[in-house]
Design a protein that fits this description.
The complex is a heterodimer of chains A (325) and B (214). Chain A folds into two domains: 199 residues; 111 residues, Rieske [2Fe-2S] iron-sulphur domain (Rieske Iron-sulfur Protein, 3-layer Sandwich). Helix content of chain A is 47%, strand content 13%. Chain A has eleven helices and eleven strands. In chain A, strands 2, 3, 4, 8 and 11 form a five-stranded antiparallel β-sheet that branches. A three-stranded antiparallel β-sheet of chain A has the order 1-10-9, with no helix packed on it. Chain A has a three-stranded antiparallel β-sheet with strand order 5-6-7, with no helix packed on it. In chain A, a hairpin with a 6-residue loop joins strand 6 and strand 7. In chain A, helix 1 crosses helix 2 and helix 6 packs antiparallel against helix 9. Chain B has a five-stranded mixed beta barrel with strand order 1-2-3-5-4. With 214 residues, chain B is of the alpha/beta class. Chain B is built from three helices and six strands; from the N terminus they run ααβββββαβ. Classes of the chains: A alpha+beta (325), B alpha/beta (214).
Chain lengths: 325, 214
């Protein structure tokens, strides 16, 4: 990121076809702004990439850090704008920023500053709540919902650029970069959603004795790995095989709702592929001193098939692992 | 441990061999594209222009006020007691360089009239951009005649004869922008005699055919 800012201001601008050199603050403003947009694009691509190909999972574990860095760069852009345009304004800088452009009645030349302010505000909230303290305080479901606002921030950033620099400067390359970013982010998310839809489409077939469902033959469960069993009207269940026994827990990690079924059994614990949170096989509890708990499920064998009771037990309920022999 | 071959756990501090090559290739490509885009975007910026063609050059004579930012107080119009205040802007959005000793003295300033919202400004040449050297000029206006008012950021009355133009390198929608005061020691030194207009460093050589009469 620092290299980007340095290259942009110190080298790239030297080769610009400008009659007069662009002043340093304006260059810095553009460098920070462009960097923010590109970083935001990268951050939004990590999630679907990791869904499409597990090789990208290592990037996922650092996504929050990328997000905080993006917010810091956006703050640099905002500070440059405030300092350069409004430092000596007779009105307070923030008031002047909001009042600077009030042409809301027109499409061409529609004020772009409010979009940038809103996007930055969202990034600020997300960065401030990125720590695990807020995750625990807000609960994973609420925290996750809050952090989905990153998509709103991205949309606002696109509008900010489209209504502002793209109209003012008419920079063709910037327009192409923005368009490519939108296509890339939207395309990856659509592809990941399609893949997930295909996975979810298959539901476990019912066994002869309700409410039991057929999870699959014994051979389908590899040692140390999980198998995801989709349910018709509930969250999927992850069944793990470890040392000749099977255990079933909720497929959603209690940390950030990561796909536990894609994890592994490490040191006798189910390990989430996203951030490495661990849970004991028999009761779905995180090893002490951690306190996260998962819902557990009952299993049984029937003619070489593994059957699953889709009714979840309360989180942390002990269920004896099913012996396969 | 077999899981270490193809399963990444952040706290393990180990990148699985099966993923390492792909991750390194992707990260290297992403960083390269990221940096190349930065260079290309910086290079592709629009030309802010050289300041030509933004209106007719005018010369204004009045009393210079240095603080808090350079302004030129013009002689009052007939019937008025206080002259209009014109803000002085240099190249880009910086205040023009001048000798602080000229504060309160009659001067002649040549440049281009700009308007930012209700503010009228005179953008003068910036020596760092190769403006012409100074020349002496005489003006009849004195501080007393100008009814010199304290420098104020309040909006002056518009000058009807001034062309409205956009300075090079500035956004088109930034009402309320004010030039950043960055006074520098100019080429001129010494306090001029009261009543004599001194040409500021950014005035042009030779008589200006576009002197604005106010």
């Amino acid at each position: 990121m620092l290299l980007y800012l340095a290259l942009y201001q110190l080298i790239g601008a030297r080769f610009a076809a400008a009659t007069l050199p662009v002043d340093a603050p304006t260059l810095a403003m553009k460098a920070f702004g462009n960097c923010t947009f590109l970083l935001l694009t990268i951050v939004l691509c990590i999630g679907p990439l990791a869904r499409l190909d597990p090789r990208f999972l290592p990037l996922l574990s650092n996504r929050r850090h990328f997000g905080v860095i993006t917010c810091a760069v956006a703050a640099g852009h905002a500070l440059q704008v405030l300092d350069w345009y409004f430092a000596f304004s007779p009105t307070p800088a923030l008031v002047a920023l909001l009042a600077a452009d009030a042409g809301f009645g027109q499409l061409a030349g529609f004020p772009f500053i409010p979009f940038g302010i809103a996007a930055f505000f969202i990034l600020l909230v997300l960065a401030a709540t990125s720590h695990d303290f807020w995750l625990a305080f807000l609960t994973p479901a609420l925290w996750k919902a809050l952090h989905l606002a990153i998509y709103a921030a991205y949309a606002l950033a696109v509008l900010h650029v489209a209504m502002g620099p793209l109209q003012d400067d008419g920079n063709t390359l910037l327009g192409m970069v923005v368009a490519a970013s939108v296509v890339l982010v939207a395309g990856l998310h659509c592809a990941a959603a399609a893949l997930q839809r295909r996975r979810d489409a298959a539901t476990a077939p019912p066994a002869t004795e309700p409410p039991w469902l057929v999870a699959g033959p014994i051979a389908a469960f590899a040692e140390g790995r999980g198998v995801v069993v989709p349910l018709a009207d509930a969250e999927a269940v992850a069944i793990f095989r470890h040392q000749g026994h099977l255990s079933a827990v909720s497929n959603l990690c209690a940390h950030q709702n990561g796909p536990l079924g894609e994890g592994r059994v490490i040191d006798g614990c189910i390990t989430c592929p996203w951030h490495g949170f661990q849970y004991q096989l028999a009761d779905g509890c995180a090893p002490p001193p951690y306190t996260e708990k998962l819902a557990t499920y009952r299993l049984r064998l029937h003619h070489g098939q593994v059957l699953l009771d889709p009714r979840p037990n309360p989180p942390g309920t002990y269920v004896p692992p099913l012996a396969l022999t | 441990m077999p899981w270490r071959q193809d399963f990444f756990v952040g706290w393990a501090g180990h990148l699985p061999t099966a993923q390492a090559a792909a991750i390194r290739a992707v990260v290297a490509s992403a960083v390269t594209i990221f940096l190349l885009l930065g260079l290309a975007l910086a290079r592709s910026g629009p030309d802010p222009g050289g300041g030509d063609g933004i209106g007719d050059e005018v010369t204004l004579r009045g009393v210079l006020t240095a603080r808090p930012y350079p302004t030129l107080t013009l002689p009052p119009a007939p019937g008025a007691t206080v002259g209009r205040t014109i803000m002085l802007a240099g190249g880009g959005k910086t205040a023009p360089p001048f000798d602080p000793a000229l504060d309160g003295q009659p001067v002649a300033a040549t440049g281009y009239m700009l308007r930012r919202g209700v503010l009228d400004m005179l953008q003068v040449g910036d020596p760092s951009y190769g403006a012409s050297p100074a020349r002496s000029a005489t003006a009849s206006a004195t501080p007393a005649q100008c009814g010199r008012a304290p420098a104020s950021p309040t909006a002056p009355a518009p000058i009807s004869a001034s062309p409205v133009a956009r300075p090079p390198g500035t956004p088109r929608r930034s009402a309320g922008l004010l030039p950043r005061p960055q006074p520098r020691r100019g080429a001129l030194t010494g306090r001029p005699a009261l009543g004599k207009a001194r040409a500021l460093p950014w005035t042009h050589q030779g008589p200006s055919p576009w002197t604005l009469n106010i």
